[in-house]
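BUG: 3D viewer hangs when loading the predicted structure for this chain

Environment: internal workstation, default settings.
Expected: structure renders.
Actual: progress bar stalls at 90%.

Input used:
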Amino acid sequence: MKVLQSALLLSVLCSAVFSIACGSGDSSGGSPVDADTQYLPKLVSGECTSVTCPPDVGNDSADCKDSQKSMQPMTCDGNGQSPLSCTPYFYRPFAWNFNNLPWNASTNRGSTPPGFEQEASSVPASWSDPWMQKVVGAENGLNVQAFTAPVAHTDGYVFHGTDGAGLQSDCYGDIKYVEHFDPLATVCAAAQRDRAMFTHPATGTQFQPCEYWGGWNTSGTIQENEFGSKASGYWDSEVSATQPNISPGSTGGGVLDAVSDYYGRLGNACDEDNKFSFMLFPWVCNDVGTDPSTGMPNNNFSAPSVTASGTKCYVDNEPGSVNPATQKKGAPPYIEIIIGCIGETVNSETLLTFGIYEISAGTLPATFIGDNYEISPNPTYSP
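Structure tokens produced before the viewer hung:
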């Protein structure tokens, strides 16, 4: 077993290949592209690009749903929810729950109609997969669960279900969110899209730039449709290019290559149902001004990390600039790729064993960082 360490590298040069912007960066702030997008088959087959086949675009407004504006409060208020669920902002309108789950009259938050936040028992019964049941903790009545190394740990992972965590500034992403808190992370260049300090809304703990990472596990294992942002479109499909022979200490191809490489080395040691993989991205904050038509007249999408109005913060899964030669968008500057297997400890607790790969400075190939990382549930962990 290895004690968890940072998977970051010092190489943070701007990519000439993908023309990723240095400095202010893209301020769109987007959650993952929808899995059922009509553009995916054409994008994968090469019939169109991320430019000619953009995905559905999120609201990217100061408030998520006009119909919810009269509902108060729309911020973290305790109300039976774990403090872990109050993230990444104070603002928590339960946008996905509001649109997809039934109203829960028993949890009226003093609003009309009745409150729509979902208690732990409201995790959809059809979500019986090992990730939701064992990792998020639904089998024990949980809707969010923290994991750390079983013996000694410096960092922690938090896995969310339908607890309202993970909202991004396009008003999507507050479902199946994943967080990595890593206080020992190597600080990366602030010039790469305004890497920013993250303040946890529930605990007040501050994490330096590149010490807080977020992402989503929407499909169990990474799928092609996840290579993009709902706000800004798909990344270059070459991020998932196939280049074999990734091995410890060497480099290989794209994200899907890393997934294939890791499970290839595991052989038959992990059942298909217990495989998992997801991508994580660092936290950024951009000054967008307070003009209601172009910026943020409130601090819904920044507080408490930035309390003043006019700033937008999000986990940076935004694509790079368009490559003039290919008319495709490059990868985000940093992607941490987590690939592993759900198992059990000798005490029958859930145990996640995984490897870490990284795409740094927005360029391929992916780099293998290490494997045999192990984490298990830690009910006392507080970011």
